[in-house]
Amino acid sequence: MVILGIDPGFAIVGFGILEADRNAQRLLRCGAITTPAGVPLPGRLRQIFEDMHQLLTTFRPDAMAVEELFFNQNVTTGIGVAQARGVILLAAEREGVPIFEYSPSQVKQAVAGYGKAEKRQVMEMTRKLLRLSAVPKPDDAADAVAIALCHARSFTSRLSLLDSARPGSGRYAARTRS
């Protein structure tokens, strides 16, 4: 399974692409889509959409894991991020890629084993779990790799459960056939 992890933003969109097979994950590529600060938001959104389209058609992921939007203090920035996130989701939907969403605490729990882990702990565990020599750079790419790793660890652990994985929410429920 190839998983595209996305850390959404409108200035920087982090991405991480993993190959996952039950207990093993391997980093294929990571990086960031960046948009120039002087460009109006519609132009930045177009660039994000085009770059996402290129990532999706180049790597043909089986799933996309994206971080749920979390408003901290700056609502204006949050609105821009929400718009960029919408463009990212649209790009995946147009390519028929199933979308899974995870909260920051779900990512921390899956990667570091603690839902309130600090960012540096998550980055270091990501490095260790993927047997990397260094934490991916920039930080947005490292976050995206952690999001992809969260999906790999959540999804592949449930492959043996009959009909248990459900795209759309990042949350899973085991169902039994009657």
Summarize this, please?
By secondary structure, the chain is an alpha/beta fold. It is built from five helices and five strands, in the order E-E-E-H-E-H-E-H-H-H.
The portion of residues assigned to helices is 40-55%
The count of β-strands is 5
Structural class: alpha/beta
What gyration radius follows from the Cα positions, in whole Å? 16 Å
Distance between the termini: 29 Å
Strand count, sense and barrel status of the largest sheet are: 5 strands, mixed
* Count of separate DSSP helical elements: 5
What's the arrangement of strands in the largest beta sheet?
A: 3-2-1-4-5
Shape: globular
What order do the SSEs take from the amino end to the carboxyl end, as H and E? EEEHEHEHHH
Descriptive notes:
The chain is α/β, with parallel strands linked by helices and 178 residues long. Helix content is 43%, strand content 20%. It has five helices and five strands. It has helices at residues 41-59, 75-94, 104-112, 119-129, 139-156; strands at residues 2-7, 12-21, 24-34, 63-67, 99-102. The chain has a five-stranded mixed sheet. Strand 4 (63-67), helix 2 (75-94) and strand 5 (99-102) form a beta-alpha-beta unit. Helix 3 (104-112) crosses helix 4. Mean pLDDT is 87; it is low at 159-166 and 169-178.
Lay out the secondary structure.
Layout: E1 2-7, E2 12-21, E3 24-34, H1 41-59, E4 63-67, H2 75-94, E5 99-102, H3 104-112, H4 119-129, H5 139-156
Parallel strand pairs: 1-4, 4-5
Antiparallel strand pairs: 1-2, 2-3
Helix pairs in contact: 1-2, 3-4, 3-5
